[in-house]
Amino acid sequence: MPGILLGDVLPNFEAETTIGKIKFHEFLGNSWGILFSHPRDFTPVCTTELARAAKLHEEFKKRDVKMIALSIDSVEDHRKWSEDIMSFNQDKACCAMPFPIIADDKRELSVLLGMLDPDERDKDGMPLTARCVFVVGPDKRLKLSILYPATTGRNFDEILRVIDSLQLTATKKVATPVDWKTHTERLAAVTIKQKAPEKKTKREREQNFTVFLKLRDSLETHTHTHTFGGHSFREILRYMEPEKNQVKLSVISLSRTQVFPKALRMFL
């Protein structure tokens, strides 16, 4: 079945939606985007999901993320169902959904993007759309893909958390640890270069080592590069000026490209 992988550019497909015909790339513009599919309109789990997504619309908007949903139902069904969703949210039934829903009644887009759930079928035996989540960057490339079976509803608060991480790591050389949330610790990647001793090679070569240090999330992140030979780990940390940058002196992990330098081997 066709699908899309992380880093792939999403196709600039045309689709009929509750706000009219769109081209996907033009709809996104220079914003981030989230495309999420659901099995069928007027079903209990799907109603709770889109109701929650509608309530969180302002949170997505704050992050410059445009939302768009998809299922195999018609535009007419989407519009009628939208009234139920807004009523479920205790909003006036006449209020419009804050994001469009794609009508993929021929399943062409669902097949193209690999969104169908083979274990869930309609009365005619045709597969329904699974609960897919695609987060797309301003470059129109896939940044995140989550695939839930039709029987399991999504957690849109978790999706917001992941978007916060994606947007942070898109602009800074950091990684976010387990259960990370904004205003908590993050990990900074610090690259150290070593010149190998002459006696080990006929030509001078460099080795790259990445040390992950804990940073307070409110601080700016810096990448430090240092060429050393025989320096102690304490001297390396002193070079990186941890007091100035308020880096906590705790090594999370160290990755290598060739051989660990003797100065760091004793710490592993």
The helix tally amounts to 9
**Mean pLDDT reading:** 78
What is the C-alpha radius of gyration, as a whole number of Å? 24 Å
Secondary-structure-derived class: alpha+beta
CATH architectural type of the largest domain: 3-Layer(aba) Sandwich
Give the spatial strand order of the biggest sheet.
Answer: 5-4-3-8-9
Features of the shown structure:
268 residues, alpha+beta, Glutaredoxin, 2 domains, five-stranded mixed sheet
Q: How would you portray this structure in words?
A:
GO terms for molecular function: 1-acylglycerophosphocholine O-acyltransferase activity; peroxiredoxin activity; phospholipase A2 activity. Keywords: Antioxidant, Oxidoreductase, Peroxidase, Redox-active center. Residues 4-168 form the Thioredoxin domain. Its EC number is 1.11.1.27, 2.3.1.23, 3.1.1.4. Pfam families: AhpC-TSA. The chain is α+β, with helices and mostly antiparallel strands. The protein has 2 domains: 14-169, 3-Layer(aba) Sandwich (Glutaredoxin), CATH 3.40.30.10; 174-265, no CATH class. Helices cover 27% and strands 28% of the residues. The chain has helices at 24-28, 44-55, 57-62, 75-88, 108-112, 156-171, 233-239, 242-245, 262-265, and strands at residues 14-17, 20-23, 32-37, 65-71, 101-103, 116-121, 127-129, 131-136, 142-148, 174-175, 186-195, 206-215, 227-228, 251-256. It has a 5-stranded mixed sheet. Strands 10, 11, 12, 13 and 14 form a 5-stranded mixed sheet that branches. α2 (44-55) crosses α4. The chain is globular and about 55 Å long. The two termini are 44 Å apart. The model is unreliable at 202-209, 217-229 and 235-268 (pLDDT under 50).
